[in-house]
Amino acid sequence: MASRGIIYEYEDGGRYCGEWENDAAHGHGACTGPDGNGLFQGVWERGHQVSGVFTWPSGQRYMGKWRQGVREGAGKETKKDGTEYCGEFTRDSRGPFGVLRQPNGVVFRGTWKEGVQHGLGTELYIDGGMYRGEYLNGMRHGHGTRSSSNYERSTTVETVSVNSSLDDSIENLASTLEDPSSVASTVTSGGSASDPTSNAQIYEGEWKDDRRHGYGVLKIVGHHTYYGQWEENMRSGYGVMIYGEEKRKEEGQWQRGKLVQKLKRRKLQLKSKQLEAKVNQAHMNALQAAEAARSKADLAEGRANTASAKSRLAVRAAQQALKDAETAEAVEKFYRNAPKVQGERAVISFQKSLVRK
């Protein structure tokens, strides 16, 4: 059957308008979900989306590739609050590689699983600091390094307005997201330009559920370095604090960031020897954890670079999707007076996704 225009209306209120062939959407067309909720505009092939733009009632928007009715391949997702993800999608979820920009200026580059950060990656923060290391179920977990500056930095993140026209979106997408991994940072206050490392913090070690937890080393440049155990982001357990150039030490057992049992190495009591052994072991474990964290950080940089490359491919896919959506919009206008067909079944398998929030 030759391609023709059609309006297909579903009993649940959904509606397709566009090109049609062999009893299925084929070519350019637009489809709304039940009661008009959600809108897809783009290219169809044998009843399934191939490339285009889907807009949710909440303002969330996806521009990119599709397969069998779900997001699959390279694409870009934006939310009304300014959050944007640019990278790969698998079975309608983010991953395995992509770049996420959040409204607060935080930028993640790395690996994903089932829609959340998982594996290895880097995270750049508004203060100019960075985390490099392992993630589990969307949180920093495993081994990693976290650096932070004494500066307060502002990060400019360009976004594409979900309310702009398709023409404007194409132009903005090309100009602002050519390199999704780039972040423009400027020093706004504090610190000294001649001494950018003054009071900078560097942590290398273990993490659990997004917090420093386990063994690790925290160095505050120009002040002190702590080697030992951590719990819930605080010094807790056995460890050693070494202050500045004078190498003054505080050793012993810590609780919630405070030294509660101080080691006095000159004493020969059995209790002091036991405490000394625990402190020495914690010191060694912290050094080993720091070394493992640096190794994971190097691997994370590699994953981040791959994510940046994938995000650039996603930009091109999003540009093409926007063009396909623009053509579909024109086709829909042309076929608005086409014959209407009533039907119970959904010709497209995407009907459930159309009402997703």
Automatic annotation (TrEMBL):
Region Disordered, residue ranges: 178-199
In what way does this protein cross or attach to the membrane? Peripheral membrane protein; Single-pass type IV membrane protein
Keyword Iron-sulfur in the entry? The reply is: no
User: What are the protein's UniProt keywords?
Assistant: Cell membrane, Endoplasmic reticulum, Membrane, Repeat, Transmembrane, Transmembrane helix
What highest taxon heads this organism's lineage? Eukaryota
Q: Where in the cell is it found?
A: Cell membrane; Endomembrane system; Endoplasmic reticulum membrane
Q: Which InterPro entries match?
A: Junctophilin, MORN
Q: Name one Pfam family in it.
A: MORN
Q: Report if keyword Transmembrane is assigned.
A: yes
Q: Name one GO cellular component term.
A: endoplasmic reticulum membrane
Segments of skewed composition (Low complexity): 181-194
Q: Which family does it belong to?
A: Belongs to the junctophilin family.
Its protein name is Junctophilin-2
In its UniProt entry, the species of origin is given as Geodia barretti
